[in-house]
Amino acid sequence: MVPIRDNNPITITPYVTYGLIAANVLAFLYESSLPPQALNGFLHLAAVVPKELTASFAGIALNQPVPEWATLITSQFLHGGLLHLGGNMLFLWIFGNNIEDKLGHFKYLLFYISCGVLAGLSQWYFSQSSNIPSLGASGAIAGVLGAYILRFPQAEILGVVPLGIFFPTFRVPAYFFLGFWFIQQAFYGVASLETPANIGMENGGIAYWAHAGGFVFGAILGPVLGLFSDKSNDDYLYKQ
Asked: What are the residue boundaries of the Peptidase S54 rhomboid domain, all occurrences included (predicted)?
């Protein structure tokens, strides 16, 4: 099921969510402007290459203009194609504004970037010798989903199921939709540990451990940063 919207109103203008979407779109437009060879070089430089990250953690100098640890952040704004970008931004558009509403602008940005970094490290842990670049906002967005399912489990999600020429719509609670999504990511993550399985990042596929890890860390960091507080820290600062 592809989500279309939720029935969860907000009380703020989600500037950070809008800004993140804009940053991802602009980064993709820049990627699209590069010829194939230059694009490959750029992605290898700005995306997370697990083998290189492993080397940097071991103290081995790689002599690259972008420190390998920094790719845990830069990789969050890169995408491998229009469908990859569109799917991620759809989820961010639907679910990000409510988490920004509860955390406040600054803490939400900190939360988002932190979830992306921790999601990248989750994927790295299971693929430390891989030479395949890992990129995309889905790890950070998975953190948003992990916070959302805790804070708004009963929120109604409207989605559509593409069935050829038919597109039936369904309404389901967030805990069902997002819970199923997490179980799916965790299942494929475990399956990707088996060498014969033709899924997962090792075969140039999806970084399922980044999704599962981001979701878990989002569920942890959200409450720590005030997900269940009635007023965001931003509101408190504005009143001083």
From this structure: 68-225
Half-sphere exposure of 134 (CA within 13 A, CB side): 37
Rounded Cα gap, residues 80 and 43, in angstroms: 9
pLDDT digits (tens, 9 = 90+) for 87-118: 999 999 999 999 999 999 999 999 999 999 99
Sequence-distant (≥ 6) Cβ neighbours of residue 138 within 8 angstroms = 88, 91, 119, 207, 210, 211, 214
- Say whether pLDDT at 189 is over 90: no
Closest C-alpha among 90, 97, 212 to residue 151: 97
